[in-house]
Amino acid sequence: MSTKIKLFVILILAFLIRSWSINSLPSLNPDEAALGYNAYSLLQTGRDEHGEAWPIHFKSFGDYKPGGYVYLALPSIKLLGLTPFAIRLPNLIFSILTIFVLYRLVLLLTFDFRLSLLSAFVLTLSPWHIHFSRGAWESNTALFFILIGLYWFYRYLLDKKWFFLFLFPLPLVISLYTYHSARLIVPVLFTTLIIFNLKKFLTKNAFLSCWLALLFILPLIISFVSIGTSRLSGVGLTADRGPLSRSEELLNQHPAFTYFDRVIHNKRLLYLLSWGQKYLSHFDLNFLFLTGDEVPRSKSPDMGQLYLFELPLIILGLSFLYKQPSFPRKREPNSFKALKLFLFSFLLTAPLASSLTFQSPSALRSLSLVLPLSILTSLGLFSLKKLRHIKPLIFIVYFVSFIYFADAYFIHAPRRYPFAWNSGFSDIIPFIESQKNSFKKIYFTSKYDQPYILYLFFSKYPPENLQSQINLSPPDIFGFSTVSTIDNITFSIPDEIPPGSLVVDSSDLQNTGQSFKLYIK
Amino acid sequence: MIKNTLIFITMAAFLVRFINFRYPPLLWDEAAIGYNAYSLLQTGKDEYGRFFPLIFKSFGDYKPGLYIYAAIPLVAIFGLNELSVRLPSIIAGSLLPLLFFLLIKKIFPKNDKFALIAALLLALNPWNIHFSRGAWETNLLLFELVLACLLFLNKRFLLSAIFMGLGLYTYQAAKLLVPLISLLLIIQTRKFTKSYFVTLFILAIPAIYGLVFGSDSNRLKVMSLFSYHRPQTEINQIIAESNPLDYRLFYSHPIFFFRNFLTRYFNHFSPRFLIFEGDWQTARHSAPYIGVILFPTFFFFIWGFLLSLKNWRRHRFFWLWLIFSPIPAALSLDIIQPVRNFALSLPIIYFAALSLSQLNKKHLKYIFLIYLFSFIYYLELYSHHLTKIKPEQWLIGYREAVEYVLKNGQTRQIVFTPFYGQPYIYYLFYSNYPPARYQPQAQLTVNGVDTGTVDRIDDILFQSPDIRSLNSRSSPVLAIISYDEIIRQGLNPNDFLKLSPLFYVYQN
After folding, report:
1. ipTM of this model?
2. What is the pLDDT of residues B375-400, one digit of tens each?
3. Would you call A322 and B385 a contact, using CB atoms and an 8 Å cutoff?
């Protein structure tokens, strides 16, 4: 089989795994619904759910979502209507393209077809990447734009085509408009790469390109400043009161504290340590290979972010890197060095944004880690090529691991985490919609985070009716708000329910097999 | 030059381990070690009146006794006190850097810089300092293991086997570590040395006997991961989610066991354990809010590990040591276990020193400064905060309480609270109670799996004092009571004399 056919087969496989029953599994979560409904609202009225015309950040639950994904989803929502598949389609496409671009990038850096194919293959079957490809995860879409930016950056560096100098900042700018974390990762990653390749990078047009990129970012910066940093304070590092109270505890243990004690138990120092712990927690072996993220929405049960057998392969890959083998280098005498620099700067910058948030390690925010780790895995596989008899063994291990993951993801997760995976909304809401006029009041459980948006999404509520009545509640401790009433539906269940009301209460899926229970008062 | 540096390193190691040796206060096991050594010295029998045992019964648990024998000469010289109990560990810990230097020199004969840096790092490594400052058997075991390896590589197989064999009678984890490290020695030298294995096997016979037939086996089953099963409700849930076949394929007991083993194994390499929190379960095992190695050591460890990948066969000895050493700890029920996992400290230092030895003098100067700050930060937490964060785990005040009783209690009925566990051993220890008089009355009430209690010695009662009933007594009473008991009986702690954050005195 030629390389092209192999690549094609890999991409088909990737598409099958990522698209299989994507419309219903996982169940739509409020964030995805918000992206979809806002796109719908823009298409219908030119304004978002809060009545803002074509915003850069969508207010949504008060968390001001970066708008990139909403705009990217406009065509598919226009064509396919407001369905879970339509809102997930852009990310699905980008995730397949990510695999393709990874293949091109590794090929560009190493000039080895086998290694490039292996990288694409490893990413195709990576649980981490599959998980965030099956849903409207902006993080994964931003990752595609970062990767293509990297690819074009290297095309400019290695192929010396000035054309790519002006092309590469473009996807990077889009990634900044799409996902919060990219705003930290992209500048740091590219500054590092440029500094290490300064001589090759600096041609007379380099500054022009940078200025152009900055010009494109300007609206984003203005919008970001105007919404304020309320969101950051909700999920940021300082939202964790631990280091502060630890500082007080330690100081109080000194009968009379001196200047030295104040310095050594300074809260800034303790916050720095707390940051360090969060940053390094992304390299914790349990997180990567055994137990995974703690957020049910970002994980499959009893499964790490990657397959367990990737750990020895990554170590083999690292050892292969350090032994400095020779790839068929056509143009660059030090293309192998380029790969090493790329891998390590990517590895070290990927968890940066995630480490600055409250909840850490976070598989979602540090998703970019999946790329360098997949390349390292494929390097490990590549280094085994001499051992022919090991091939079937690797195949079996891969196959069994994938079945295990698929079982965990498709079968166990939706039943284990019914609340996080918001199951049942797509069935209950059309029913409520049909009963809406026969009851004076409808009370809907508030057990799920933002039920109102799922109601809007699945009932395809007319945006123009909403914009006039929408009213966000005050934010909770994490800075998220919700909407408590739409028409005659109240999204909480009071103690005193007036007669003539329909109540939709939550139910324990594991015991009853049902997500909701209905009753009439 | 090298000789002087080594002397300096050993002196430094000794000083950090020795200075203020009464801090932190003695734990139960340390007091028991001391008293058993004292008892053996005076009567030739342990506290239960058995003649020179190999395995000691202690609080209903059984532990290997080599440390106790090591403490006997010191108790003979210094008397029964904190110093004589802890000195074997202090000495072993202070000599370990020297042995480590020799071991690395044996593997890399030309690399003095590497071996010296490793010795220095080891001398000032928090993990090693912590377990050298108390009578921790694991510290003595590590000393014996390194000594045995060194002797083996120097072709003194018989002596090597003897020290390995002694290891089996020092600490439980040796039963796994000794075979693993013997395997390591074969891999390193590529020779199967008969005399070594025959000697080791002969020495191991009593230990194997105890493992298979003795009380040991029971304990091993109960305290290890083997006894840990998935709760039935969880099994039912998994089956309900899919089907019994799926459960059997992917979630059955062997897989569950393997996952639990690996979680524990990985935990021992986590940054959380190594540099940020140490043992997050038990405050006794590390200083608070900091890990078991210094911050820069962690980064140089990673770097050194990556460097070693270039040619891992040259570094295979410590590569394999690194992989082997968390196994005993990962087989225990505890999610993190720095005591059983103590042997891991060596390969970490080894790889850190490997990367540091690649740097030139100018860089090392800056790194030295970073190390100095990090070490001071650790020392501050150790010396000021170790026992204050969780005083109840450190049993603050047993010494003061016993001394108070000895001074003021001659004519009074004494009631001593067992709230913090095993007060009797502290009483025996600090009063230097004659072993010959204690042995006949050693009566252990067994309650549960691995602890037992002693209710009285002479007319001293070890029971929770009921203040209201003591109040009504006409005879003079002295009671040592814990803070929690005062609160539970609805009384005011201010009415009592405070000895420590844990212990209060009542006198009628």
Report:
1. 0.92
2. 999 999 999 999 998 888 999 999 99
3. no
